[in-house]
Specification:
- It contains twelve helices and no strands.
- It has 211 residues and is mainly alpha-helical.
- It has two domains: 90 residues, Endonuclease Iii, domain 2 (Orthogonal Bundle), CATH 1.10.1670; 109 residues, Orthogonal Bundle (Endonuclease III, domain 1), CATH 1.10.340.
- Helix 2 crosses helix 3.
- It binds a DNA duplex (13 and 12 nucleotides) through helix 3, helix 6, helix 9, helix 10 and helix 12.
Length: 211
DNA sequence: GACCAGGTCCTTG
DNA sequence: CAAGGACATGGT
């Protein structure tokens, strides 16, 4: 059963790679990836980018600046992403922990994948998806991001919908390389946005890949 | 107005 | 532990 899941994952990722080729999807500094990852939940990406622009204008697009930022200024800059009170608190706790207890981003960059992940998950407001997003896109670590779009793709392709199972499946099947993980996840997001609705997939052809 | 958007945490049963 | 709700703005 797990063998056939592996085959499905390979077929899906090859199909997406032929369809989209190489795409640059989220090329940003570690600081910006961390901030964006906290702002992303339940929010359109365009609004996250808008908030990042506001933060840049306020000089708040870095972890160090956010730690020292005025609450009201921070909240106003990210208001357009929704949940702005919670998210500003999460940014604050993230920035404080990173700067004051983890030795800054430079020190984190020299930690092992597992230690880094553990430290991120220990921060209030950082869950599995946000942590893996930061690991994969911000620190170029081979941790596969499972999000709502991955769920949909796998539902359409007839692969398990259990997130932990999916994560280990993708990490087992794909080459253990952060760049590959970034590409595959970017492909999944592109495809799901276009073809896979929240409840039902529209005209995606993933189901037929197995036959 | 209804429904959705790249989660996470807290509270209940 | 599973399920339900809260968090909040912006777009279709």
């Amino acid at each position: 059963m797990s063998g056939s899941s592996s085959v499905k994952v390979k077929k899906v990722t090859q199909f997406l790679n032929r369809k989209y080729g190489t795409i640059v999807w989220w090329n940003a500094s570690t600081d910006e990836v961390m901030i964006g990852a906290v702002l992303t939940p339940q929010t359109r990406w365009e609004n996250v980018e808008k908030a990042l622009r506001y933060l840049r204008l306020e000089g708040l697009c870095s972890i160090a600046a956010i730690r020292d930022a005025d609450h009201a200024t921070l909240e106003n800059a990210i208001r357009c992403t929704g949940f702005f009170r919670i998210k500003s608190a999460r940014l604050k706790s993230l920035a404080t922990r990173v700067m004051d207890e983890l030795g800054g981003i430079g020190a984190m960059a020299s930690q092992s994948d597992d230690d880094l992940r553990k430290n991120l998950l220990g921060i209030h407001g950082i869950g599995e998806e946000t942590a893996d997003s930061i690991l994969c896109y911000g620190f170029s670590r081979p941790r596969f991001v499972i999000d709502a779009y991955t769920d949909r793709i796998c539902r359409c392709a007839g692969i398990t919908t259990n997130r932990h199972a999916l994560k280990s499946l993708f990490e087992k099947v794909l080459p253990h390389d952060a760049g590959v993980f970034q590409q595959v996840h970017a492909h999944i997001v592109e495809y799901a946005k276009e073809y896979c609705g929240k409840r039902r997939c529209k005209e995606c052809t993933l189901r037929t890949l197995n036959g």
